[in-house]
Design a protein that fits this description.
Shape: globular
CATH superfamily of one domain: Tex N-terminal region-like
Strand order of the largest sheet: 6-5-4-7-8
Distance between the termini: 49 Å
Number of helices: 32
Helix content: 40-55%
Low-confidence stretches: 676-680, 716-726, 728-743
CATH architecture of one domain: Orthogonal Bundle
Structural class: alpha/beta
Mean pLDDT: 89
Radius of gyration: 33 Å
Largest sheet: 5 strands, mixed
CATH topology of one domain: Tex N-terminal region-like
CATH class of one domain: Mainly Alpha
Strand content: 5-15%
Length: 743
């Protein structure tokens, strides 16, 4: 373990070195983030999953930095350039940028103008000029290097070659690059303009036809919008600082006085900036700002996904699910409380009166036959019309009728997972089953779908894809383990996200379950092929077995702590079941009595909380929701209406809200209520039920502007304010892209 790494991480994340060291040691032993944060609190000082993941990621970065450091030292040694001073610089470099700046002058490179000048023997001239002696005569100095055979026909050519060498020195100077980097970061500007002739085709980027803003303050979504416009061939994008300041900065570093030699150096500095350094810094700043924009976009996406995965479940119910449609009809499926497919059918409620009557009779019949407790209707095409049709059937009030966000259902229905689950059914049946299962347990169903297909991101196809995948995988893993998994009913796709498991072990577990029947105890997990002691330790606490041999198997109490609960029960002369079912008995427990060298109060308090509510679901309670009657299409929406809605996506510039008209409205960040803006804990969340006021409706462009404020601005007032705002990218195109993702 590198002690330097531990010190750096502790300082950066504001933790103690002891915490970081313990966390790093556990990670190196193969412990997962959920396991460490849940079951190793004594060792880490109760670090949560965010802190543990931060230690993991920073540790990986520092180790990669060390690998690069070793590679550079090896290269320098092989070329004979390594000196004690240079080695010290490489060893103490704290960032990859600093390391690469040190290595730049020695890095193997293609032939440059400076290389050619050196081949002509002009480096001594460059060195003499760079001394900038007051009495030196550049022309006289250059005359000694004229050699037609070497390709230096005149003194001017010699001076030109010498300046090329000096320009490269300036470009590769570590101090100059750092100063220039700071200038770009502090005073640099994003500048965009439209490519000539692309005005009409690139109209969605109209805000960026002639745009500039500081690099330091440009938000993520605008950086990504500008880059997308450039990538699509509509915009020219540059990142530049004030050129006068850049040149003045370099001249202050390199030019001494105003001698004839100094004037040659000044020319070289100007050439270096325009030909080399500005391009290098622009490229570097593009990378840095892209990383910054990606990080924010990924953070927003990850948080949206977390909220979606932890949406309240309806629970185990007999569900009739409907995938709505007009021409092709509505696909209907019935699933039991475990999500098993019982029946499929197709109805045509939106055709003639006869079809409508037959469809209604069929729904009523299926509800009785399969003891339906809830009806789930996809919110896609014909969703609201189908909802109205079903609500008019006079079904028992006990049957909940719910609209379900069907984003990604089509992706699931065409996936290998769906084909494996339902090999004998077509895509429409698979999609309908997914809609039905989503209200029962959103987490269990959504883990089967690529998160990017769920429709809660912003610019998800533009950001660093490996970084996005790592972040989203972390979210899924944390959500799955936070909720816990019922081992006897979970799918392979859900099990593979359990701490310590993966696709192979999840498959082995399901195969064992199929061959031997339900697991009766957590200890039985050890019989699964390739599930060894280490994996059992990592996974067991997150796997639940209801009605098992040991009541603790249904809780999040880890098997390694069962002996503690047994000791508590013995001391109180009762059973473990009595301990779990009687609060008065638990009040008699003195936790300090059970503290040991390895088990402290954090773990004991967790155990007590779990005994009070074994296997409790941390998700909020499910609440029924319905859209406004009579508002089913965008033409029905009028300014001033107050409509119930569901937040479907949150971006840096506002929140998209489904109000039940097949076109999500946008509540710009300025139209979120004051408390949402001032208090991060009160921020709107994906899947949150809200009441939105309609500000404006543009039927032709399919745009709906909403507000969550109690007293929103009138549309005319809002329009006046918008004239002074910075562009928030093209909202219409964002809405269209978002809706495309959802469908």
């Amino acid at each position: 373990m590198n002690s330097g790494h531990i010190r750096i991480i502790a300082s950066e994340i504001s933790l103690t070195e002891k915490q970081v060291l313990a966390c790093a040691a556990l990670l190196d032993e193969g412990a997962t983030v959920p396991f460490i944060s849940r079951y190793r609190k004594e060792a880490t000082g109760s670090l949560d999953e965010v802190a543990v993941a931060a230690v993991r990621d920073r540790l990986a970065q520092l180790r990669e930095l060390d690998k690069r450091r070793e590679a550079i030292l090896k290269s320098l040694e092989e070329t004979g350039a390594l000196t004690d001073e240079l080695k010290t610089k490489v060893l103490v470099a704290e960032t990859l940028t600093e390391l690469e700046d040190i290595y730049l002058p020695f890095r193997p490179k293609r032939r440059t103008k400076a290389t050619i000048a050196r081949e002509k023997g002009l480096e001594p001239l460059a060195q003499r000029l760079f001394l900038q002696e007051e009495d030196s005569d550049p022309a006289a100095l250059a005359a000694a290097f004229v050699d037609k055979e070497k390709g230096v026909p005149s003194a001017d050519d010699a001076l030109s070659g010498a300046r090329d060498i000096i320009a490269e020195w300036v470009n590769e100077d570590q101090n100059a690059r750092q100063k220039m980097r700071e200038l770009y970061a502090e005073k640099g500007q994003f500048k965009t303009r439209i490519l000539t002739g692309k005005e009409e085709e690139g109209i969605k980027y109209k805000d960026y036809f002639d745009w500039h803003e500081p690099i330091a303050t440009a938000p993520s979504h605008r950086i990504l919008a500008m880059r997308r416009g450039e990538k699509e061939g509509f915009l020219i994008l540059r990142l530049t600082p004030p050129e006068e300041e850049a040149l003045a900065l370099l001249e202050a570093l390199c030019v001494k006085g105003n001698s004839a030699a100094s004037r040659q150096v000044r020319l070289a500095v100007q050439d270096s900036y325009k030909r080399l350094l500005s391009l290098a810094m622009e490229t570097e700043m593009r990378v840095a700002t892209k990383e910054r924009a990606d990080a924010e976009a990924i953070r927003v996406f990850a948080e949206n996904l977390r909220q979606l995965l932890l949406a309240p479940p309806l629970g185990q119910r007999n569900v009739l699910a409907v995938d709505p449609g007009f021409r092709t009809g509505c696909k209907v499926v019935c699933v039991d409380r475990q999500g098993k497919l019982l029946h499929t059918d197709t109805i045509f409620p939106h055709f003639s009166g006869k079809n409508t009557t037959e469809a209604g009779d069929k729904i009523v019949h299926l509800c009785k036959k399969f003891d339906v407790e809830a009806i789930a209707i996809g919110n896609g095409t014909a969703g609201r019309e189908t909802e109205s049709f079903i609500r008019q059937l006079g079904l028992p009030a006990a049957i909940q009728i719910l609209m379900v966000n069907e984003s990604g259902a089509s992706v699931y229905s065409a996936s290998d997972v769906a084909r494996e689950e339902f090999p004998d059914y077509d895509l429409t049946v698979r999609g309908s089953v997914s809609i039905g299962r989503r209200i029962m347990d959103p987490l269990a169903e959504l883990v089967k779908i690529d998160p990017k297909a769920i429709g809660v991101g912003q610019y998800q196809h533009d950001v660093d894809q490996p970084a996005l995948k790592r972040s989203l995988d972390d979210v899924v893993v944390n959500c799955v383990n936070k909720v816990g998994v019922e081992v006897n009913t979970a799918s392979k796709q859900l099990l593979m996200y359990v701490s310590g498991l993966g696709p192979q072990l999840a498959g082995n577990l399901v195969e064992y379950r199929n061959q031997n029947g339900p697991f009766k105890a957590r200890e039985e997990l050890k019989k699964v092929s390739k599930l060894g002691p280490k994996t059992f330790e990592q996974a067991a606490g997150f796997l639940r077995i209801r009605d098992g041999q040991n009541p603790l198997d249904a809780s999040s109490v880890h098997p390694e702590s069962y002996h503690i609960v047994d000791a508590m029960a013995r001391d109180l002369e009762c059973s473990v079941a009595d301990l779990m079912g009687n609060a008065d008995v638990r009040k008699k427990i003195d936790l300090t009595k059970y503290v040991t060298d390895t088990v402290g109060l954090p773990t004991l308090k967790d155990i007590m909380a779990e005994l009070a509510k074994p296997g409790r679901d941390p998700r909020e309670k499910f609440e029924s929701f319905s859209f406004a009657d009579g508002v089913e299409k965008i033409e029905d929406v009028q300014p001033g209406m107050k409509l119930p809605g569901v937040v479907t996506n949150i971006t840096a510039f506002g929140a998209f809200i489904d109000i039940g008209v097949h076109q999500d409205g946008l509540a710009h960040i300025s139209q979120l209520s004051d408390r949402y803006i001032k208090d991060p804990n009160e921020a709107v969340k994906v899947n949150q039920k809200v009441t939105a006021t309609v500000l404006e409706v543009d039927v032709k462009r399919k745009r709906i502007s909403l507000s969550l404020k109690k007293n929103p601005e009138k549309p005319r007032q809002q329009q006046q304010r918008k004239k002074t705002e910075k562009p928030q990218a093209d909202i219409s195109s964002l809405q269209q892209a978002f809706m495309k993702n959802r469908t």
